[in-house]
């Protein structure tokens, strides 16, 4: 198609080639913007006699055809510049051809950072950055994707890209931007058939990661999304992040947003303004005029870039290809732009072309943008994060180099999109943030071993339904384990298996090391030998080795128990003092007090009764002598001390002393030489043997696993393993069933055995 597209062809004609995929809606959008740019330019500068003649060629969505079209334009049409092509893969070959022929090539849609302008001095890009720092600095687009992934706490992603040099070139910058996030790779050939795409998607579906980042050509990328929906990979729990190019092309080429519900996308941000709204209205009218089926099509950022690149090219060519310029007559093989070149660090730059092409970095002929000049590329410094909801693309946030993720409305910095911007609609019409990790239906579940014990079912209880023969497990340890799994940032489905622990839990623990189990959950104690083979989580309850011993035999509960608080000497001394005080009071009072006179037996009885009645301060006789009064006051104080001391001693003797254990530590057990029991299946036997109980006339009594707490006849001391120590339900059972026993704690440590999920479970606890 060789025409000026509405422009008059004069003797001052400058030929410019356009290579684009004419069968796509994208080409119609870009051609509309190019025609608008021509019309606006010549309306603004009607006095310009130089006219641009566009020669449009169809690349037919093929790399070879695009290069052939460029070769034809350069050698046959003698074009002075080329606009296009659409894709980065097409641009790679065209750039080499144009550079060899010294024909400037301007692209507004090839977004791959691997297209380097430094090594291609006749290549000017109006999209994103490129240059020698591509492997040293992360591109803003990759930083935006990394910020989204980190803000939602996803720890693993799958990057889906094209199997070519351009596709592989994005991985270093993406991996660097994601940092600690684990990146899996999925490579799809650019010529992949639908069957090959399905095969790769089925492979991804059988793996655990559910966060997918697609960075590829829009036509191939939307084919991948279509097949993903067909096999159920657009359901709840999945996350899809689209790159800049795909996000801008969502509404074009007849695609419906209803098939992309819940997707997140990143695209270049162009602020709203009066100039932009005016441009959009004029663009829509022109597009509908040129394309009858163009109702509802909106100009995207590529339309703006195409519009601006054409205007800048017109300005450059008008400046350097005047009527009196001899360069116009030169052949293509001669460097027609020699007066625009300058040498810098061994690289050739089209400095004047770049300067005029970029123009005002903050304003594109009245249309505000945020574009930065990087080498010979124009880079969008701000990106929008959009969420596809219904038939609209809702902007949920922005990303800027200075602030990172910000609220699109309030412009406030945020670290979590869901909290700041309201609920995001995810695939499957879900408002719950996906964990990013699921056990696939065809995937391997984690095998969790559970010790089979008949005793102490509060920790682990295994029941089998006699009708369905279905075995279920429950208990305190199981509840804690499943609650911890729910707090993980990904889904874990345990598959329980049951294993008798044998004489102790060592064999069960070693089975984890051998790979039979991924984890073991139960009343398992951490020991030094076990921790050498497996990992343990933090303890979910306090622990310690305890022993249960009988209380002292209470042989003092008889009718003479009231005499026990004092010794015989104290009783005799106290009685003598009562008699002595009676004699002293009689000595001072019988001469002056008639109450202490009379027959001898009367005086003796009165004096002794007066002395003993002072214990309850109930003495009836009045004391007249001052000396007698002083003695009575002192004696009443002594009697008060004696009565209080006796009451306290008697109370202690009847209560506290009857609760004392027969042994308070292990040394007492060793010295007593009594038999000591332990529960079968625990590690306490090793502790007892280590303490050399058998060498001190002690014997070990093995208690069954389902033993009730008791003290068997003939065995005064019973030691049970620490699993019974801190469980509240077992403490209650102990208080109800062992009235003649006492619980003693000995310091120790207990942890629950873990699996490869130890770091996550530990962090979650």
TrEMBL record:
InterPro entries according to UniProt: ANF_lig-bd_rcpt (IPR001828), GABAb_receptor_plant_PBP1 (IPR044440), Glu/Gly-bd (IPR019594), Ionotropic_Glu_rcpt (IPR015683), Iontro_rcpt_C (IPR001320), Iontropic_Glu_rcpt_pln (IPR017103), Peripla_BP_I (IPR028082)
Query: Is Nucleotide-binding tagged as a keyword?
Result: no
Gene Ontology, cellular component aspect: membrane
UniProt main location, coarse: membrane
Q: Which SMART domains match?
A: PBPe
**Topology relative to the membrane, per the entry?**
Multi-pass membrane protein
Family annotation (Pfam families): ANF_receptor, Lig_chan, Lig_chan-Glu_bd
What keywords is this UniProt entry annotated with?
Glycoprotein, Ion channel, Ion transport, Ligand-gated ion channel, Membrane, Receptor, Signal, Transmembrane, Transmembrane helix, Transport
The residue ranges crossing the membrane are 570-588, 627-646
- Cite the Ionotropic glutamate receptor C-terminal domain residue spans from the record: 445-726
**Gene Ontology MF terms in the entry:** ligand-gated monoatomic ion channel activity
Q: Where in the cell is it found?
A: Membrane
**Partners and quaternary state?**
May form heteromers.
Report the protein's function: Glutamate-gated receptor that probably acts as a non-selective cation channel. May be involved in light-signal transduction and calcium homeostasis via the regulation of calcium influx into cells. Glutamate-gated receptor that probably acts as non-selective cation channel.
Q: Which family does it belong to?
A: Belongs to the glutamate-gated ion channel (TC 1.A.10.1) family.
Q: What is this protein called?
A: Glutamate receptor
What are the top taxonomic ranks of the organism?
Answer: Eukaryota, Viridiplantae, Streptophyta, Embryophyta, Tracheophyta
